[in-house]
Amino acid sequence: SSFATSSTYTVTRYTQPNVVYGEAQTATSTTFTVVASVSPASGNDTLTLPEGQRSNETRVLFTTTAFHGGTAGSTALSDEVTIGSEQWEVVQVQTWTDSASGNAVGYRCLLQAVR
Asked: DSSP label at 49?
Protein backbone atom coordinates (compact mmCIF):
# COMPACT_ATOMS: atom_id res chain seq x y z
CA SER A 1 0.00 0.00 0.00
CA SER A 2 3.02 2.31 0.05
CA PHE A 3 6.16 2.76 -2.01
CA ALA A 4 9.52 3.28 -0.31
CA THR A 5 10.69 5.73 -2.98
CA SER A 6 7.38 7.24 -4.01
CA SER A 7 6.74 10.74 -5.28
CA THR A 8 3.76 12.63 -6.62
CA TYR A 9 3.43 12.85 -10.41
CA THR A 10 1.03 14.70 -12.69
CA VAL A 11 -0.94 12.58 -15.17
CA THR A 12 -2.63 13.93 -18.29
CA ARG A 13 -5.58 11.84 -19.48
CA TYR A 14 -7.08 12.46 -22.92
CA THR A 15 -10.64 11.87 -24.04
CA GLN A 16 -11.48 9.76 -27.06
CA PRO A 17 -11.28 12.09 -30.09
CA ASN A 18 -14.66 12.66 -31.71
CA VAL A 19 -15.10 12.34 -35.45
CA VAL A 20 -17.23 15.04 -37.07
CA TYR A 21 -17.98 14.78 -40.79
CA GLY A 22 -15.11 12.32 -41.18
CA GLU A 23 -12.50 14.49 -39.43
CA ALA A 24 -11.04 13.70 -36.03
CA GLN A 25 -11.46 16.56 -33.59
CA THR A 26 -8.84 17.52 -31.03
CA ALA A 27 -9.10 15.45 -27.87
CA THR A 28 -9.63 17.26 -24.58
CA SER A 29 -7.55 16.46 -21.52
CA THR A 30 -7.73 16.45 -17.76
CA THR A 31 -4.89 16.32 -15.26
CA PHE A 32 -4.62 14.71 -11.85
CA THR A 33 -1.84 13.65 -9.50
CA VAL A 34 -0.83 10.16 -8.38
CA VAL A 35 1.59 8.72 -5.89
CA ALA A 36 3.95 6.35 -7.67
CA SER A 37 7.45 4.95 -7.78
CA VAL A 38 9.46 5.30 -11.00
CA SER A 39 12.62 3.42 -11.92
CA PRO A 40 14.64 2.65 -15.07
CA ALA A 41 13.34 -0.25 -17.16
CA SER A 42 15.36 -3.44 -17.41
CA GLY A 43 16.38 -5.17 -20.60
CA ASN A 44 13.63 -7.73 -20.01
CA ASP A 45 11.07 -4.91 -19.79
CA THR A 46 12.01 -3.61 -23.21
CA LEU A 47 11.72 -7.10 -24.73
CA THR A 48 7.97 -7.01 -24.03
CA LEU A 49 7.62 -3.96 -26.30
CA PRO A 50 7.04 -4.08 -30.06
CA GLU A 51 10.24 -4.18 -32.15
CA GLY A 52 10.11 -0.50 -33.18
CA GLN A 53 9.80 0.74 -29.58
CA ARG A 54 12.62 -1.22 -27.95
CA SER A 55 15.28 1.45 -28.47
CA ASN A 56 13.20 4.26 -26.92
CA GLU A 57 14.03 5.52 -23.44
CA THR A 58 11.81 3.51 -21.07
CA ARG A 59 10.86 3.74 -17.38
CA VAL A 60 8.75 1.54 -15.07
CA LEU A 61 6.07 3.16 -12.89
CA PHE A 62 4.40 1.37 -9.95
CA THR A 63 1.15 2.79 -8.58
CA THR A 64 -2.26 1.94 -7.16
CA THR A 65 -4.00 4.18 -9.72
CA ALA A 66 -5.33 2.60 -12.94
CA PHE A 67 -3.72 4.02 -16.10
CA HIS A 68 -4.77 3.96 -19.75
CA GLY A 69 -2.06 2.56 -21.98
CA GLY A 70 -1.74 2.25 -25.71
CA THR A 71 -3.03 -0.99 -27.15
CA ALA A 72 -2.65 -2.22 -30.69
CA GLY A 73 -5.67 -1.45 -32.84
CA SER A 74 -7.19 0.98 -30.34
CA THR A 75 -8.00 4.60 -31.10
CA ALA A 76 -7.90 5.52 -27.41
CA LEU A 77 -5.09 7.86 -26.40
CA SER A 78 -2.59 6.83 -23.74
CA ASP A 79 -2.12 8.66 -20.47
CA GLU A 80 1.00 10.81 -20.13
CA VAL A 81 3.00 11.27 -16.94
CA THR A 82 5.17 14.28 -16.19
CA ILE A 83 8.51 13.26 -14.65
CA GLY A 84 10.62 16.30 -13.89
CA SER A 85 9.94 18.51 -16.88
CA GLU A 86 9.52 15.66 -19.40
CA GLN A 87 6.37 13.95 -20.68
CA TRP A 88 6.27 10.14 -20.68
CA GLU A 89 3.61 8.09 -22.47
CA VAL A 90 2.09 4.96 -20.92
CA VAL A 91 2.73 2.19 -23.44
CA GLN A 92 1.90 -0.89 -21.36
CA VAL A 93 -0.09 -1.57 -18.18
CA GLN A 94 0.03 -4.74 -16.08
CA THR A 95 -2.50 -5.26 -13.28
CA TRP A 96 -1.49 -6.87 -10.00
CA THR A 97 -4.33 -8.64 -8.24
CA ASP A 98 -4.87 -9.89 -4.71
CA SER A 99 -4.80 -13.69 -4.97
CA ALA A 100 -7.50 -14.10 -2.30
CA SER A 101 -10.05 -11.59 -3.59
CA GLY A 102 -9.05 -11.21 -7.24
CA ASN A 103 -9.24 -7.43 -6.87
CA ALA A 104 -6.68 -5.13 -8.47
CA VAL A 105 -4.19 -3.87 -5.88
CA GLY A 106 -1.62 -2.15 -8.08
CA TYR A 107 -0.37 -1.44 -11.56
CA ARG A 108 3.01 -1.74 -13.25
CA CYS A 109 3.27 0.58 -16.24
CA LEU A 110 5.95 0.95 -18.90
CA LEU A 111 6.50 4.57 -19.90
CA GLN A 112 8.41 5.94 -22.88
CA ALA A 113 9.70 9.45 -23.35
CA VAL A 114 7.58 11.63 -25.62
CA ARG A 115 9.82 13.26 -28.21
From this structure: S
